[in-house]
Amino acid sequence: MDHKKIYHARKLRTAKGDIVIEGPVSSHVLETLDFNEGLTAFRLPPQQHKALIEIAKLPEARILIARYNHAIVGYVTYLYPDPLERWSEAKMENLIELGAIEISPAFRGSGLGKNLLQVSMLDDAMEDYIVITTEYYWHWDLKGTKLNIWDYRKMMEKMMNAGGLQWYATDDPEICSHPANCLMARIGKRVDPDSIQQFDRLRFMNKFMY
């Protein structure tokens, strides 16, 4: 599959100043930028910065960033699902996962997450993909946001809806392990019926097990 990527950008005026939402950005661009110290959700900031640079080198990968002056203050990643996850079992070239989205705490509340998703979908090539995201409550910053599980879930759903992702049912054991967890997806306009059927089979792999 030809993983076309067309760069788009949007400038936001916030209380902190102008922030540029842009991407997909290359590994070279990521190397030239600073990485905000508040981006600690997955790894220590220097390690996560390095991880994003490596991800950006993958042919299918897309990384969009929120940039404040010369620093990354938020990002979203899209890439093929982890080989250990069920979503990779069908080896679908047109199924990618929104693997991570993070905004530095100092820059939250300005709609950066929503805008990262909206700018992601401005690229017409996204109409060729099924985009999924798996939301697990244990990854959420409940302490930092002071939200309960259900309010955080509503916030996440609203943000994902801004990128066109909708809730989808599944029998995936990890997702089913807590009612706040969920699968969300966006099926592009040019995705063929066979791919949609494959995705449905991935969502319900245990339906014939009793």
UniProtKB/TrEMBL annotation:
InterPro entries, per this entry? AcuA, Acyl_CoA_acyltransferase, GNAT_dom
- Pfam families assigned to the protein according to its UniProt record, in alphabetical order: Acetyltransf_1 (PF00583)
Q: Name one GO molecular function term.
A: acetoin dehydrogenase (NAD+) activity
Which GO terms fall under biological process for this protein?
A: acetoin catabolic process
Note the SUPFAM superfamilies from the entry: Acyl-CoA N-acyltransferases (Nat)
The N-acetyltransferase domain sits at 23-189
Q: Which Gene3D superfamilies match?
A: 3.40.630.30
Name recorded for this polypeptide: Acetoin utilization protein AcuA
**What species is given as this protein's source?**
Priestia taiwanensis
